[in-house]
Design brief:
This protein is of the alpha/beta class. It is built from 19 helices and 14 strands.
């Protein structure tokens, strides 16, 4: 027990305190106990635990007060101290507040032993994660790179700082930004710099799954649960067990499915479609959307309770046009990546190409930049640098600035046209202007990607002589 991880348990109910101490000691941890926040603070200073498990409601100093002191005044404590809060049913708001203050995780009473043990194991891994995080910080200081993200601008440095702060914890994060800004890269970086790194990272695009299948994809199903369910299938939560799940394009998830998702998030249990029993889950859930969450809520596309549950921390990714000073190092990093991917030896990027790139608005953001660089690397001769001649034909001509709304006046709608005909023409012209980029077109038109796909499917069923 000399090298065992030290766990301080703070609980004012004697039987619960004794039971937790016996349980945690039985798992090989060294334990110490305290009966309220004041005693817990004193024991923490004297004993320097690696983990603190504390109740929220206690006399003298409650769990929130203790957590605040540990975070703000505990400079001499373990640098990787993890605080786990215990909360009664119906006190989720308090638990979320504790997470925002710096708690590692929370657990509802009565305490589920399996869930508690999982939390303690994950919290213990923080020590290894902190070493990796320090290496990442050093690389960031030297090169402006954090995970797969690159940048030295003020906005990107601010995002890097937030990622460093929250990656080792278990908190949910909402990532917003235009399509192609790197939202999934942020999620992957959060996973890579967390104790969950050895476990799976699973990303599911809620906009790309038919509404009839999305619950099966996310929660899984039993054999015979519905027509076509010929065998049992694990959902995304199970596939990400012990790791991280990214719900991409959250606002595209059907509202009914969001209600079931909320229950899973709050109870940490799920039931496959057609199953009779529930199972425990241990997954960190991240979410992303290219919509304004407040507008999505107002339009009824996003449930407020799901938004507030996932939006413990918010990372807003800026469009590339707003931090073009990061473009040169991004291109340099991408060239190195593409050299490895395609077995090439491109030697750099000529100023003529960078100048053209810096003058472009990049409506497709970093994703469009990556595709442009990959194309150029494939075309370039080994040993030579990329130059303006490697850019796509017509590069930068006829672009629609992303910050500028689509000008409906350029769409010729004849007098006497129906609203449906005008709508169809606007959609078709917008797709033409964006080079058939449906994601960009949906943003310009102010509709969801799913709505755009449905409209196009509807138009494909209209005979040509009725299409205007």
């Amino acid at each position: 027990m000399q090298n065992a991880v030290k766990v301080l348990i703070v609980e004012d109910e004697p039987h619960a305190l004794m039971g937790l101490a016996e349980l945690i000691s039985g798992w090989g941890y060294r334990t110490e106990t305290a009966r309220d926040g004041i005693e817990g603070w004193e024991k923490a200073l004297a004993w320097n635990p690696a983990i603190v498990v504390t109740d929220l409601k206690m006399p003298r100093l409650d769990g929130i007060g203790l957590l605040t002191k540990l975070v703000e005044e505990g400079s001499g404590l373990n640098a990787n101290l993890a605080v786990v809060v215990l909360t009664a049913m119906g006190s989720i708001e308090l638990a979320v507040a504790a997470m925002k203050l710096g708690a590692y995780d929370f657990l509802q009473k009565p305490v589920d032993a399996t869930r508690l043990r999982t939390i303690l194991v994950n919290a213990t891994r923080q020590r290894e994660t902190e070493i990796e995080l320090e290496v990442a910080r050093r690389r960031l200081r030297e090169t402006g790179v954090l995970g797969g993200l690159v940048g030295n601008s003020v906005s990107m440095r601010r995002i890097f700082g937030l990622i460093e702060q929250i990656a080792p914890s278990n908190v949910s994060v909402l990532i917003t930004g235009e399509s192609g800004t790197g939202k999934e890269l942020v999620a992957r970086t959060l996973h890579e710099l967390s104790p969950r790194k050895p476990r799976p990272f699973v990303a599911v695009n809620c906009a790309a799954i038919p509404e009839t299948l999305i619950e099966s994809e996310i929660f899984g199903h039993e054999k015979g649960a519905f027509t076509g369910a010929v065998e049992r299938r694990a959902g995304c939560f199970e596939l990400a067990s012990g790791g991280t799940l990214l719900l991409d394009e959250l606002a595209e998830m059907p509202v009914g499915t969001q209600a079931k998702l909320l229950r899973v998030l709050e109870e940490r249990k799920l039931r496959r479609l057609g199953a009779r029993t529930e199972q425990e889950i241990d997954v960190r859930v991240l979410a992303s959307t290219n919509h304004d969450p407040e507008k999505a809520i107002a339009q009824g596309h996003l449930r407020p309770d799901v938004y507030y549950r996932l939006n413990v921390f918010h990372i807003a990714m800026p469009p590339l046009r707003e931090h073009l000073e990061d473009l040169p190092p991004m291109v340099e990093a991408m060239v190195g990546e593409m050299n490895l991917k395609h077995g090439r030896r491109v030697s750099g990027v000529a100023s003529s190409m960078l100048d053209r790139m810096m003058a472009y608005d990049w409506p497709g953001n970093a994703r469009e930049l990556r595709n442009t660089v990959e194309r150029a690397v494939v075309l370039c001769l080994d040993g030579a640098p990329l130059d303006a001649g490697h850019l796509p034909p017509g590069f930068g001509k006829g672009q629609i600035p992303a910050a500028q709304a689509f000008d409906a006046s350029v769409v010729p709608v004849r007098v006497g046209s129906t609203v449906d005909e005008a709508e169809r023409l606007l959609i078709v012209r917008t797709l033409e202007a964006t080079g058939q980029n449906k994601t960009r077109a949906s943003e310009i038109l102010g509709v969801s990607l799913k709505t755009l796909h449905n409209k196009l499917k509807e138009y494909s069923q209209i005979p040509d002589d009725h299409q205007g």
